[in-house]
Request: fold
Amino acid sequence: MNEQPSEPLAAAAPDPHATFVRDLMSPPIGVFDREMTVAETVEQLRKMTETAVVTYCYVTDAEGRLDGLVVMRDMLLATPETKLGDLMLTGVFSLGESLKLSDALKQALHKHFPVYPVCDADGRLTGLIRGTDLFAEQAIEISAQAGQMVGVEKEERTYTPFTRSLRFRHPWLQINLLTAFAAAAVVGVFESTIDQLVVLAVFLPVMAGQTGNTGLQALAVTLRGMTLGELKPGSAGGLLFKETALGFFNGLLVGITAGLGMFAYAVTKGEAEPWMLGMTVLVAMTASCTIAGFAGASIPMVLKKCGADPATSSGIFLTTASDIGSLSMFLGIATVLLL
Reply:
């Protein structure tokens, strides 16, 4: 077991809905003094294992501070008179009991230990948390993200009462309605353009759908990176550039296909400038997907910077940005190039 020094304990901000390490930990077992011999320890372990599963032996000082850890394999290979202090591994990785579960998951992500010791702010061993319990909570956190992006609280389950589900979801739908009005207002601004080029109306949902999907891809990757602790300080700029570039190139490739589709449709309808209509779709799709890629990566970062949960209804805000961006680009470029 390759132990690493404990990372600094992070102060947890007050949050009535947050889960902390102390909420999942169990009382410490297998705790011994460094002066105890292997023979004495094994004798005590025989009694402990009758009622509990002991994975590691933890060595503490007189005040209960965690000094080290002894792996069972090392005890089996040691002589009976060997003291635990001579066998133990020092610099043991531990979790702070006041650490938020989300932060603990990020610290333990690459450790993969069966059991993690939990210490208080003074380094005293206060409990243990099994890796299965810790990462079961991570699975719940990740599974909740899809719902949170569209205003479904992570507390809601299939068995949640009807009235509570309504209370959870409805406020976000009202917000979504207001943002939809903003997208509708964009269409209203270009009403004269649509009146003169009715063929554009056919491609409005195509533009909005492709742009929205591009943004959701960037959003999903960004949220996953935040949950797993992959988004380190100073790396936000690189992620924004990558997702914006992906939006550009995906938009360009999809725009070529969509532009050809518009060209073919315009020809069948006898439109005067089918090539210009196809080019309008190509340029608008490229620009819109570029905006969507940037928005998908930046929205959760902005929410986090504002102190909000990055996953909370980020999908609603992204949909608004994507719809406004795609419709304004499409109709604006059509107005400039075709009228």
